[in-house]
Automatic annotation (TrEMBL):
Residues 276-506 form the Sigma-54 factor interaction domain. Residues 13-69 form the CBS domain. This is Sigma 54-interacting transcriptional regulator. The lineage of its organism: Bacteria, Bacillati, Bacillota, Bacilli, Bacillales. CDD domains: AAA, CBS_pair_SF. Gene3D superfamilies: 1.10.8.60, CBS-domain, Homeodomain-like, P-loop containing nucleotide triphosphate hydrolases, PAS domain. InterPro entries: AAA+_ATPase (IPR003593), AAA_lid_NorR (IPR058031), CBS_dom (IPR000644), CBS_dom_sf (IPR046342), Homeodomain-like_sf (IPR009057), HTH_Fis (IPR002197), P-loop_NTPase (IPR027417), PAS (IPR000014).
Length: 596
């Protein structure tokens, strides 16, 4: 284990010590020692340490008969000195001064004296004082927090227990610390969280006859669970209702012109930034930029690999901005045939072409008036259509196919792609002028492999969602399985994780998802030592993604059959937006069978 940098000789040694030339006469060296108030100095030549000149040796020389003060220091210096290594820990040093000499060059690299050691102890004292003050603050906050807080170690033994928790359970702090959580807290699930490693957030819990809302959070270190924290958040239904009422008052104050029906519809369909799961630095930075973008009307370009959740970000921006009163219109540019794209985006007039609706039809841009239009997979848009999109963005007007009357529009544009638009512009596959129109506020969504610490939070949320969809009890997941998920690269990102979780949920008969329920293709990736190896080739990844797409297609088909083709109901059961479901139905060519 590495020693802290603060405690080593290298950190504190004097790298530019005063040295003496071997040809310097003794009387000059004596003056230098006296002026510097030193008892010894190193003798060097071209940076190489030759020896040490000590005041004690000069005194012995001067006491001898005859004047010896004009002798050179090389004749008086000694080769006996304390040699230190740069990695030597300061607490281990027993004798000073010490000299640090390079093993390769023999040059003097530094000197450690009582002066440097005194500076070290001074800073160490200040550091300890700050740590003590910080610990007092932590203890004060912990014990005075309104919420009940407790922390257990990996064995479920209580290590910390605050006053609030003590009041809830009726057990003094001193009596609780050192006890197993199950002996102190009724019906505790902290041991379950220790076993699974999956957080349980906002869970209903009855403690001493009191209804509470609790969080149970595992504590990870070096890919190992070392404990768990329990937090009592709300006290009964009354407190929860009070919070909801305050939130409603906040909405009324900010949106006093809203009709009650509009508010209800907004709350049912809105996606907030809080719904984008994860608190890793990578996803937190993306959410930070997105929140700032939501407060403006600037065009947003969302980039990221397939399956990272680009549409979720687009919706969060829409519902957090001024456009939330309007509709969020999602268009998958890759799913619309080139021949139909113009009429889909701009609409068409009565009798515009054979087979058209007799009354004409509004396009996606018209539907997004006073709202947001989200052009997903913008990198797949044909060059001809790119020119027309650019004109709409410049003029904020649209003409239906077959018409000549410009229709003024007010909309916000959000686009997304998993392609490198900069390279496409360079290759002539994407218009440069349109690119700069779109590239106002870029937001890059990180892939799941770059934020694996978010996996437990995502799993906990998805398992609760699946329990509602399938009207079953919430299932737990084995800690060993969770560890393996950390080691997998997730080429399909969040979408792949969601598909696998649903498969695990459905195929597991009991309420605990074990390692044996792992999909076969992940079993293939397991090495003998029990770790997940990376997918071997791009071809293999494509095969896996194709398999996942087939399963998704079958799931959508079964759900639509279950609800007799009602797409709104199917979207709710699948946990996706209506727009996303339409895109998937179009992608999998299910349109002919389900038209309601």
């Amino acid at each position: 284990m590495m020693k802290p940098e603060l405690d080593t000789v290298e950190k504190w040694m004097n790298t530019k010590p005063t040295t003496i030339d071997p040809l310097m006469e003794v009387h000059e060296a004596l003056k230098l020692l006296r002026n510097l108030n030193e008892t010894e100095l190193p003798v060097t030549q071209d940076g190489h340490l030759l020896g040490i000149l000590r005041l004690q040796d000069i005194i012995v020389l001067m006491n001898e008969k005859g004047d010896k003060s004009h002798q050179q220091t090389a004749n008086v210096m000694t080769n006996s000195f304390v040699r230190l290594n740069k990695d030597t820990v300061l607490q281990d040093i027993r004798e000073l001064p010490g000299y640090i000499v390079s093993d390769e060059s023999g040059k003097l690299e530094g000197v450690l004296t009582e002066k440097e050691l005194l500076l070290y102890h001074k800073e160490l004292t200040q550091k300890v004082k700050k740590t003590e003050d910080l610990m007092k603050w932590y203890e004060l906050i912990f014990n005075t927090a309104y919420e009940g807080l407790t922390v257990v170690d990996e064995n479920g033994v209580i290590q910390l227990f605050n006053e609030a928790y003590s009041r809830y359970v009726g057990v003094p702090k001193d009596a609780a610390v050192g006890q197993h959580a199950s002996n102190v807290i009724d019906n505790t699930r902290l041991p379950v969280v220790l076993k699974t490693g999956v957080p349980e957030r906002s869970q209903a819990h009855r403690l001493q006859g009191q209804d509470l809302v609790v969080h149970r959070i595992p504590i990870w270190k070096d890919n190992k669970i070392i404990g768990a924290a329990g937090i009592l958040v709300y006290e009964g239904l009354t407190e929860i209702q009070q919070v909801i009422q305050r939130m409603e008052q906040l909405h009324k104050r900010d949106e006093h012109n809203y009709q009650l029906k509009q508010v209800s519809n907004f709350l049912d369909s809105a996606i907030n930034f809080e719904d984008i799961l994860g608190d890793s630095p990578a996803i937190s930075n993306a959410k930070k930029i997105a929140r700032k973008a939501a407060s403006s009307k600037a065009t947003v370009l969302i980039t990221g690999e397939s399956g990272v959740g680009k549409e979720q970000f687009a919706k969060a921006i829409h519902y957090a901005g001024d456009t939330k009163a309007g509709d969020f219109i999602s268009v998958n540019c890759a799913a619309i045939p080139e021949g139909l794209m113009e009429s889909e985006l701009f609409g068409y007039t009565k009798g515009a072409f054979t087979g058209a609706d007799r009354e004409g039809k509004a396009g996606k841009f018209e539907l997004a008036h006073n709202g947001t239009i989200f052009l997903d997979e913008i990198g797949d848009m044909p060059l001809r259509m790119q020119a027309k999109i650019l004109r709409v963005l410049q003029e904020k007007k649209v003409e239906r196919v077959g018409g000549n009357q410009p229709i003024p529009l007010n909309f916000r544009l959000i686009t997304a792609t998993n392609k490198n638009l900069t390279q496409m512009v360079h290759d002539g596959k994407f218009r440069e002028d349109l690119y700069y129109r779109l590239y106002v506020i870029p937001i890059d969504i990180p892939p799941l492999r770059e934020r694996k610490n978010d996996i437990p939070i995502i799993i906990a949320h998805k398992l609760q969602q699946l329990a509602k969809v399938y009207q079953a009890n919430v299932k737990t997941i084995d800690q060993q399985l969770l560890k393996l998920m950390y080691k997998y690269d997730w080429p399909g990102n969040i979408r792949e994780l969601m598909n696998i979780l649903e498969r695990l949920f459905v195929l597991t008969d009991g309420e605990h998802i074990s390692f044996n329920a792992l999909p076969e293709f992940l079993h293939i990736e397991l090495q003998k030592e029990g770790t997940l190896a990376p997918v071997q080739s791009l071809k293999k990844r494509r095969e896996l993604l194709a398999e996942a797409s087939k399963e998704e297609q079958e799931l959508i088909k079964q759900t639509l059959e279950q609800v007799k083709g009602n797409k709104s109901q199917a979207a709710k059961l699948l946990g996706v937006s209506r727009a996303t479901l339409y895109n998937k139905i179009s992608r999998y060519a299910l349109d002919k069978n389900y038209n309601t």
